[in-house]
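Consider this one:
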Amino acid sequence: MNFASKGEIFQSLRTGIAGEVARCSRISGAKRTKTDPVNKKLWKDLYPKLLETLRASAVAQAWPSERLLDSLLRLFYCSLVVNLEARNRVVPYDYMDFARRVGEVWEDFCKVCWDAPVNQQLRRLRPPDFASVRQQLLTRFSELVEAGHPTNKLAVMREYQRAIDLLGNINLTEDEYCSVGQQKFVIDFKSGFGSNEKGNTERLLTVAKIYGLLPDTHQCVLAVRAAEGEGNNYLQVLKSSGLWKVCCGSDAYDFIKALTGFDLAAWIRRDVAFREDMETEAYCHLTSAHLTKYLAW
């Protein structure tokens, strides 16, 4: 398999998924009964097998990091194209399904740059769990209270613990948690930031505040595919909070390049061509449904 050739990858994937598409097109039932097997065939069978072959070739031939990442991105992109067109053939996409799906896969696409970073100083880290953070905060406060020798130490600790408990059990796992040297980064990817993001905005603000309480310095970054003008008030709330660095459109790709050492925007300009690469039937449907704007990466 030549992983520098989109044509070879497309041929392998389309041949591999054809039988499942034909089978699911014939069955009746709920939408997911028809679409889930197609998605599973692509991402749980065909893609992992090609990925294993790719990585084996990279090791055997001692590929440089740039070549490895280039091939990983191409395999992911081709798999996505075939997945979108195959799923659309079984059940044509509507607005909600397509917008949500592209949001999910754009995040995964960007994260490939963390799977094989060109910047050798970039390290993925295991994010802290809130239970351990909560215990750190309580321990630190207890030490401060002890140093002050208050007569009501237990009462003060109980009130502080109640205040901490108001946060609830916050999930501190974002899309990427990594470091470059001593600087740690908390990164959240969004294809777009719409009018239904109130709850997510409040969660992100809480997450950043908690990371700010930790001894190590963290920079929280929101990378958004869409241009800033396509965002709304909730995006501006995050931007003006001082807690999150918001990077939209080309700024998001500039941030990815600065951190990973790879120019993802240039790769997209060279290799991503949904209109030319996707089967005509699928792309025509997306065009008539006014969904191709989500493919402007």
